[in-house]
Structures are given as structure tokens and as C-alpha cells.
Specification:
The protein is mainly α. The protein has one domain (about 35-240). It is built from ten helices and no strands. It has helices at about 5-15, 35-50, 55-70, 75-85, 95-100, 105-125, 130-155, 175-190, 195-220, 225-240. The protein is globular, with a radius of gyration of 17 Å. The mean pLDDT is about 90.
Length: about 240
């Protein structure tokens, strides 16, 4: 593995997980976003199936939701909270960016977090995967797709700040995130051919809504917006996957 590749992997791990904290943010990390997402989802999917053998579905789902928050360092949840506080109220653009940078949490952020985390709990807690492979394929694909969408956004959307943590990821050619999205779609087909288009479509719609709102109200994306888009996309995908197919 080249120094550039290993540095990109370390940077992606440092951003998207609690592993490798403090790693320098590098443009090369974007290529590794789908890989890190797939690893996260695969681990959580295996845990989801194993916990379902021991606990009732709701308890197993709750543990998986908590584990996801822990392994990601709550970064995406923080992005959701900050984005809700900045994008939803009636504010001027400069004030929106300032609010999103503040450490305080407002009513919009708290409400958004409660709704999204509650929906994730309901979705994961309403079903038990039929096999370990089913759990791994579903969560691995959904988590890979969300990080792939984040990577694609950094190369195709305008960055809303002059500087910021996500500045290092702007301006790349995110070919590998596009391939990651294709791989996620293939994994979903193996999970359930009939439901796969709806699950992936829900994920893209959820993330797309966040990016659309950010474009309308900020003129582009921020690091918080990336996290919010990924989390909302995952949540809608989980809800659709929990339907009675």
C-alpha cells in the first residue's frame, strides 16, 4: 500500500470513526469513504444478527443504534443537529453558518436528533435479519452508500465556507465513491432484489433533500451537512427496508 493510500485510509478513519483520531484531513481520504462505510455497516450488521439471537428485536436494534453512535464518535449525529439548527429556522445565510459552528444545541437540532434516532431504533427494532449474511448485506450496503454519497458531494457540490474541516476534501474526482454506490446497489440486490431499488432510492432521496436545502439556504455544503445527509439517507433506507416485502 502506497504512502498516499495509507494516508488516505487513516484520514478517512479519523473523520468517519473513532479509530485513528487526530489524523490529518487529506483529499485522498474521499476514495476510502465507501470502504470505511462498508466496514462499519458490515460490523453493525453482524452484531445486529447476533444480538437478535439473544435479545428481543427492539433491544437488539437499540444496541446497534448506540454502537453506531459510539463507533462514529457521534460525528454524523452532531452534523444532523448543527444542520437542523442552521438550516431550518428563518435566518440570514451568515447567521446560519455561525449557528452551525456554535457548540450550543437548539430546539431544532434536538428535535431532529430525537426523530431520526427514534426512527432508526424503530426500523432496526421492528425486524430481525433472517441470517447473518442478510444483516451484513443490508447494513453494509446502506452504510457504504451513505459514505459514497458524501464522497460524491465533495466533488460535485460547492463548499459553503471559506475554510473548515471539509475544505481538504473539496475539488477531487470522486470516481471511487461512484463505484462504491454501484457496489452498494449490487449488495442490496443480493439482500432482496425486489426491495433493493426502493431502499437505495430512499437513501438517495434523504441525502438529496439535505443537500438541496443546504444549497438553497447556504449556497453549498459543509461538513455538518455531509453528516446530516448521510444520517438521514441511512434512516430512510432503514425504514423502507423494514417494510413487509
Amino acid at each position: 500500500m502506497s504512502e498516499r493510500s495509507s494516508g488516505g485510509l487513516g484520514s478517512a478513519l479519523g473523520l468517519l470513526t473513532v479509530v485513528g483520531g487526530g489524523s490529518e484531513m487529506r483529499l485522498a481520504a474521499v476514495a476510502w469513504f465507501p470502504v470505511v462505510g462498508a466496514a462499519l455497516g458490515t460490523g453493525l450488521g453482524a452484531a445486529w444478527w447476533a444480538l437478535g439471537r439473544v435479545f428481543p428485536p427492539l433491544v437488539a436494534g437499540g444496541i446497534v443504534v448506540a454502537a453506531d453512535l459510539a463507533v462514529t464518535g457521534m460525528l454524523h449525529a452532531d452534523g444532523l443537529i448543527d444542520s437542523a439548527d442552521g438550516l431550518l429556522p428563518h435566518l440570514e445565510r451568515a447567521r446560519r453558518l455561525a449557528v452551525m459552528a456554535e457548540p450550543q444545541v437548539g430546539a431544532f437540532g434536538v428535535t431532529a436528533a430525537l426523530i431520526v434516532l427514534g426512527l432508526r431504533l424503530v426500523a432496526l427494532g421492528s425486524v430481525t435479519p433472517a441470517s447473518a449474511m442478510k444483516g451484513v448485506l443490508l447494513l453494509g450496503a446502506i452504510w457504504m452508500a451513505s459514505r459514497s454519497v458524501m464522497g460524491l458531494a465533495t466533488g460535485h457540490l460547492r463548499y459553503a465556507r471559506v475554510d473548515g474541516m471539509a475544505t481538504a476534501f473539496v475539488g477531487g474526482r470522486p470516481l471511487l465513491p461512484a463505484l462504491g454506490l454501484v457496489a452498494a446497489a449490487a449488495a442490496l440486490v443480493y439482500w432482496h432484489a425486489l426491495a433493493a431499488p426502493a431502499v437505495l432510492g430512499a437513501e438517495l432521496v434523504g441525502a438529496g433533500l439535505v443537500f438541496w436545502l443546504a444549497h438553497r439556504r447556504l449556497g453549498g455544503f459543509t461538513g455538518d451537512v455531509l453528516g446530516a445527509a448521510g444520517l438521514l439517507g441511512e434512516t430512510l433506507a432503514l425504514l423502507v427496508a423494514a417494510a413487509r416485502w
